[in-house]
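Shift notes (night). Ran histidine kinase while the centrifuge was going.
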Amino acid sequence: MRTTNNKQADKALRESETKYRLIFENSPLGIFHFDKNGIVTECNESLLKILGLPKEEVIGFNMEISLRDENMRLALEAVLARKSGQYEGEYSPTTSTKITPIKADFSPNISEDGSLQGGICIIEDITKRKRAEDALQRYAEELANANEELKSLDRMKDEFLSNVSHELKTPLTCIKGYGQILSDETLGSVNDQQKKTVDTIMRNSERLRRLVDSLLYISKVQAGTIEYVFEPVQIAEITDYVVADMLPQVKEKDLTIEKYVPDSLPSINGDKDKLTDLLVNLVDNSIKFTPSGGRITVTAQEEEDNLHISVEDTGIGIPKELISNLFQRFYQIDASIRRRYGGTGVGLYISKNIVEAHNGKIWVESEEGGGTTVHVNLPK
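Came back to this:
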C-alpha cells in the first residue's frame, strides 16, 4: 500500500514539475532562479529577450556582488532575509548598455525543513506601459498649460470687456445728454421729423447703455466685485417703471404689453436697481423674440413665503431640450438667432445671478412656436 502511495506521489510530483517547466519555458514573463548566495542558476528565454543578454552571461551572475541598481539590490536583500521584494525601474545589466523599464517580483524559496534555498524572480517588460504613462503625463502637462492659457485669455477678455465698457460710458453719457437737450428743446424748437430722429437717438443710446451695463455687470461678477444694497422695495413700483421705460420698444414692434401687479403686494428685501435690471432683461427678451402683433404680460402675486413674478410672451418659443442651457453666459440657441434677433446672450445669465443673490429661484417654461414664460420667485 505504501509503495502504491509513493508511486502516486512521485507521479504527481513529476506532473507538477512538468507543468511548471512548461510555464517556465513558455511564459512571456522573464523568470530566473538564484541560490542563497544570490547567484543565478536558471532562467528562461523570455528573460534573455527582455534583458537583451546571452544565456552564458546570465547563468552564474552573482547579484549580491555585481548588481549596480541599489533598488534591485534592496529587493534581493529582502529575499535573502526570507521576505518578498519588489522592484520597478529602468534596469541596465552590468554587461550591456540596453536600458529596459521592468517590474520585478522577488520571492524566497524555502525548503520543507525551513532552510533558505534561494529565490525566484519574475520580470515583466513594462516598456509599453511606461510609454503610455509618459505620453499621458505629457498630455496632462499640455492640458494644464492649455488650461492656464485659457484662464489667462479669459482674464484678458474680462479685463478688455471691463475697460471697453468703462470707456464707452463717457461718450454714451455725452450722446444721451445732448440728445436729451434736443428732445427738451432747450436749444430751440424742433419739428416733427427732427423729433422722430432725436427719439431714435435716445432710444438706441438707451439700448447701448443697457448693453454696456450688462458687460460691466459680467466683468464685476467674474472679478467678484459685484455689490448689492438690500432695502425694502415694492415690486409694483419697479414693474411700473420698467413697463413705462420699455413702452417705446413695445410700440416700435407693434406689440401689446399688459401688467397685472397689485399695489397691495408686500415689500421685499432687495436691491432696487438690480431687480429693475432683472425685469428689464426679461421684458427686453420678450420684446426681442415676439413677432409684431404679439403680446407680453407681466404679473406678480403673493404665494406663501414668496412673491411670484412672471413675464409671459407669445413669441417664437424655445425647444424644450434647450431650456436648461438658457442661463449660460453668452448662450444663444444657435448662431442664426443672434444674427436675426440681435443681443449678446447675457440677459438670462445676469437675471439668474440677480435672482440667486436674492435667495430666489428662476425658471423658464416654453414650447417652440408657443411662446415663453419666465418665472421668478423672490422671498418676502
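Confidence is low (pLDDT under 50) at residues 334-339. Residues 89 and 117 are 27 Å apart (CA to CA).
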